[in-house]
Amino acid sequence: MPEATSSADFAQRAVDIARDSVAAGGLPFGTVIVKDGAILAEGRNCVASTHDPTDHAEIHAIREACRTLGTEYLTGCTVYAIAHPCPMCLAALYHCAPDEVVFLATREECAPYMAGGKDKYFEPATFYTEFAKPWNERRLPMRYLPRADAVAVYKLFGAQHGVVSL
């Protein structure tokens, strides 16, 4: 891995990872996580090779960085992603709470080159629109099956953490 020391270097490294992925027949995504001016973790989209739909570049890098740090939080870190994160990656980024996320291309800039394909629900241009719909209006069929015992598990958790009392 080349030595990177500035925002421009870290951004370039994310682009290089994505370009290498495309050259190897993969998808054009690359992520670099930086802490204290040094690269802590890198990731590329490995969905096709691992058959894991969650193995996105950001998720891959987050997992590596968190293992290295021994925590689920990326406090003090900056994440460089070649494109605006998808909803799954964005949610993971909110969970791990880095100091900053820097993305190098917008969804709108990437969409013309990513549309179509074999994924039934994945159309990047409409992903966020689909997520904003009420659960019962999405293209992905969803069904609510109410269970009091499911809610009871959350009540138990809340009680253990001083959020509610039983």
UniProtKB/TrEMBL annotation:
One of its GO terms (biological process) is purine nucleoside catabolic process. PROSITE patterns: CYT_DCMP_DEAMINASES_1, CYT_DCMP_DEAMINASES_2. Keywords: Hydrolase, Metal-binding, Zinc. Its EC number is 3.5.4.3. GO terms for molecular function: guanine deaminase activity; guanosine deaminase activity; zinc ion binding. Residues 5-121 form the CMP/dCMP-type deaminase domain. It comes from the Bacteria. Gene3D superfamilies: Cytidine Deaminase, domain 2. It is an enzyme of class 3 (hydrolase). This is Guanine deaminase.
